[in-house]
Amino acid sequence: MTHPRLSLNQATIKYADLDEALAVPVAAGYESIGLWREPVQAVGVPDAVRRVADSGLRVSSLCRGGFFTIEEGPTRRAAIDDNRRALDEAAALGAPALVLVAGGLPEGSRDLIGARSRVRDALGELADHARDTGVTLAIEPLHPMYAADRAVVSTLAQALDLAADFAPEQVGVVVDTFHVWWDPALEASVRRAGAEGRIASYQVCDWVTPLPADVLLARGYPGDGHIDFAPITALVEEVGYTGDIEVEIFNQYVWDAPFADVARITAERFDALVAPHLRPIPAPVA
Amino acid sequence: MTHPRLSLNQATIKYADLDEALAVPVAAGYESIGLWREPVQAVGVPDAVRRVADSGLRVSSLCRGGFFTIEEGPTRRAAIDDNRRALDEAAALGAPALVLVAGGLPEGSRDLIGARSRVRDALGELADHARDTGVTLAIEPLHPMYAADRAVVSTLAQALDLAADFAPEQVGVVVDTFHVWWDPALEASVRRAGAEGRIASYQVCDWVTPLPADVLLARGYPGDGHIDFAPITALVEEVGYTGDIEVEIFNQYVWDAPFADVARITAERFDALVAPHLRPIPAPVA
């Protein structure tokens, strides 16, 4: 039995198909999973919805939408339309949030400010559909080392500024320890996010050095790196986050391990390093 | 003839000894150089002072001091003493600033806030000696991807907060495009740095993707990467910086090239991408 708020993000067992990705956390005592669109689409959304319901798992989030930085034209239109479909899929799956990766600088462009303004524009186009579907657009600030080629949203403060034009139910933020642990303004930004009701997802994984050759794969199990999960977790709790907590690890070593081992180690680390800093679980009524 | 404010940081021609490091920029028309302590110490400081004087070059900065995050004990005492010597060396060489790399988390520690507070403590111990020597302690915020293992000072705002207890002549900041270009708060922080008189050094090099296996070597010539030097340079100028502008490139490809080629390409890129955004050079009096 793992902590009831622990959710296994499907990317942590990247090579599992949807049935495996649902069976593994169930067998390991999880109650929640973070899904990705590709394995869902591989079986079709209606069928995925049935399989998720059969598993008994909650869906903590759907990954991912975004890629909003390209200039106006057919490719941008297709991206906006695809994000609308992603909201529909999240709603069908019962996911409260669609995780958004902003996108990097368009090919050949050095206009960082322009790229960031187009992220805001895209949120404006999608916010009504977010309200209609009941799914929150969850902006994930990515570590600044990805600013050029993956996400021009680099800090929690910036994500909150982008969200500020919209209701918290429409646009929120993801707090992922890997991406934000270094931020000198982290405490202030998490407090602001809590006060504004914008924390749509809290995710934990560790920052491991030396960084691997592919820095996209630099994440590790909690405890394998340099992040102190105690103060960040306690703060996210203190400011009012009550949702599931995902572990999402991109790491070739983790991906190559048996799925059941990954789920077990993830739960052990979570229970040792994260769970002690959460509010006590109310005792069941006798 | 290169731009009179261009300075070649010695690390850009890492394998040059001091004599070569002085001869190369002179031959390429530079008027300024950024020195490193190791090649200076290889010939001894008094001899280095003579050679620099003979070269006719200004010294824009000395690299580097810092490594302030270790807990109290003999190693920390040795680091503080070494920084005092570094200030003496900078003064002897005529360098206006000693560049500081804060240091990463101590081995096995996850206490980021504690490490950051020890940086502030070290500045407090060194500030009087900075005033006595006339050399500014120049805190260089490093890119957040180095927060664990190299520098717990990750943003310009944080560096300015650390400097705030001291006079600008004692403690300033380095604005290095590679480290700060991604920062959503960059404009606000540069304006604050200018208003407080704290910009001790402006350095330019580019952010090139994909990152190399060793992310310490990710820097490139201006123009080879994703940074738009125009707005950052214009802003640094606008807020009052009038000093030399260093190009400091850690990159194996650059290091393996002939020194003269590196100096020439650096000047070409600077003249094309940075110099147009500087104030005009006053015409000589006829």
Automatic annotation (TrEMBL), chains A, B:
**Claim: Isomerase is one of the keywords in the record:** yes
A molecular function GO annotation: isomerase activity
Q: Which InterPro entries match?
A: IolE/XylAMocC-like, Xyl_isomerase-like_sf, Xyl_isomerase-like_TIM-brl
* Domain of life where this protein originates: Bacteria
Alphabetic keyword roster? Carbohydrate metabolism, Isomerase
Q: Does the keyword Isomerase apply?
A: yes
Please list the residue ranges annotated as the Xylose isomerase-like TIM barrel domain.
27-258
Family matches, as Pfam families:
AP_endonuc_2
What name has this protein been given in UniProt?
Answer: Sugar phosphate isomerase/epimerase
Please name the source species: Diaminobutyricimonas aerilata
